[in-house]
Design goal:
The chain is of the alpha/beta class and about 400 residues long. The protein contains 14 helices and 17 strands. The chain has helices spanning about 5-10, 35-50, 60-80, 95-110, 130-135, 155-160, 185-195, 205, 210-215, 280-295, 300-315, 345-355, 365-375, 390-405; strands spanning about 20, 20-25, 25, 90, 115-120, 140-145, 165-170, 195-200, 220-225, 235-240, 255-260, 265, 320-325, 335-340, 355-360, 360, 380. The N and C termini lie far apart (about 45 Å). The structure holds pyridoxal-5'-phosphate. The site of pyridoxal-5'-phosphate has 15 residues, from helix 4.
Length: about 400
């Protein structure tokens, strides 16, 4: 079934607003996606009619809020293809999820000299937590570089693993190059060698169907605000077999079984890893966003975005003063580029913003990748299910204006 993009757009109130007196052309989706009315309504409804703290009260509203909040776990399980509901841990986003892997699994399991293999394409959220293990536990980071087209050869990742490698940390889709990484091949081989795998699904889960059981990873992080849900919502999938090796990361209410003056014991997973009052309404909103995505169909979304990607690739290729970084086969609809004639990415984004076109400029929280590319920054246009070929034309027009100013 193809996506009825006009109908999809009508569900997003913000897409009909103007910016600098121009229709908004929102191409900053890799940073955060806009929200459909159903998500906005769900958040408002939860606060207006069904709000109380969860897991704590015995009163009507607390039970209702708890039921609504806990019901999202099953939706996340289905969305990610996890085998067991308790394998879904609620987080505030990928950053928290990846830090949970670092503190909750890495800290108790890694010794000095143990290795973590990662790609230079990672977002800082999938780098800094491993640097913490390097600084605090003496872990060694081993970096894998992409090929010239931005693809990542799984064999290169596996070749970087030695007898001391304990963890492989990889993105499923690069937030800069759009490269989709063959994480299945890596995770399958890693499992055979007893190496744990953590996959950053922040981008991939938005644009394609994901099945963590088929991927065979140990950990998979997603973030709700990119999935058309509220900010500060998200989830970490943890393969059940890893729970026994983990320790809680944040201590406080809800994650305990008993607390005494001289001892404590924890709750069972997933609650062991969910201390304190969580993002109750945010997670309820994320559940509605997941229903909305599955209603459209992830395969249909992927097909729509493939068509947009091909059109954008063709239009950008027509500008011989633009260099697009990365063209790996099967890449997602994310285009990072530089402009000949010395226009800095910040200048480009500022100029095209005056035409209503919202893109991102900078290092995109991927400085090791920028270093690898020999750049300090790029301009990035990242597409979503509600974008249209006409918006890509608007981007091209705006870039042409920008080029004529700086050339
Ligand atoms: C690939 C990737 N990983 C991790 C993150 C971090 O996500 P969050 O800031 O929502 O935790 C992002 C967000 O930009 C991302 O694109």
């Amino acid at each position: 079934m193809s996506i009825d993009v006009a109908a999809v757009r009508a569900e997003f109130p913000i897409l009909s607003r103007k910016v600098h007196d121009r229709p908004l052309v929102y191409l900053d989706n890799a940073a955060s996606a806009q929200k459909p009315q159903v998500v906005i309504d769900a958040v408002t409804h939860a606060y207006a009619h069904e709000y109380a703290n969860v897991h704590r009260g015995l009163h009507f509203l607390s039970n209702l809020a708890t039921d609504n909040y806990e019901a999202v776990r099953g939706k996340l399980q289905a969305f990610l293809g996890a085998r067991h509901e308790e394998e879904i841990i609620y987080t505030t986003g990928s950053t928290q999820g990846l830090n949970l892997v670092s503190y909750g699994w890495g800290a108790p399991n890694l010794q000095e000299g143990d290795e973590i293999v990662l790609s230079v394409m990672e977002h800082h959220a999938n780098i800094v937590p491993w640097h913490f293990l390097r600084e605090r536990q003496g872990a060694v980071l081993k970096w894998v570089e992409p090929e010239a087209d931005g693809s990542l050869d799984p064999q290169r990742v596996l070749d970087a693993c030695g007898p001391r490698t304990r963890l492989i940390a990889l993105t499923h889709m690069s937030n800069v190059l759009g490269t989709v990484v063959d994480v299945e091949t890596v995770c399958r081989a890693a499992r055979e060698r007893g190496i744990a795998t953590v996959i950053d699904g922040s981008q991939a889960a938005v644009h394609m169907p994901v099945n963590v059981a088929e991927i065979g990873c140990d950990f998979y992080a997603i973030t709700g605000h990119k999935l058309y849900g509220p900010s500060a919502s998200g989830a970490l999938y943890v393969r059940r077999e890893r729970f026994g090796e983990m320790r809680p990361f944040i201590g406080g209410g809800d994650m305990i079984r008993e607390v005494h003056r001289d001892r404590i014991s924890w709750n069972d997973p997933p609650h062991e890893f969910e201390a304190g009052t969580p993002g109750i309404v945010q997670m309820i909103g994320l559940g509605v966003a997941l229903d909305w995505l599955t209603g459209l169909g992830m395969e249909n979304i992927a097909a729509h975005e493939r068509a947009l990607r091909d059109y954008a690739r063709e239009r950008l290729a027509g500008l011989n003063w633009i260099t697009v970084q990365g063209d790996a086969p099967g890449k997602g609809a994310i285009f990072s580029f530089t402009m000949e004639g010395a226009a800095h990415p910040h200048d480009i984004s500022t100029v095209i913003d005056r035409k209503g076109v919202a893109v991102r400029a900078g290092h995109h929280c991927a400085q090791p990748l920028m270093e690898f590319l020999g750049l300090t920054a790029t301009t990035r246009a990242s597409l979503a299910v509600y974008n249209t070929p006409a918006e890509i034309d608007a981007l091209i027009d705006a870039l042409e204006t920008c080029h004529s100013l700086f050339a």
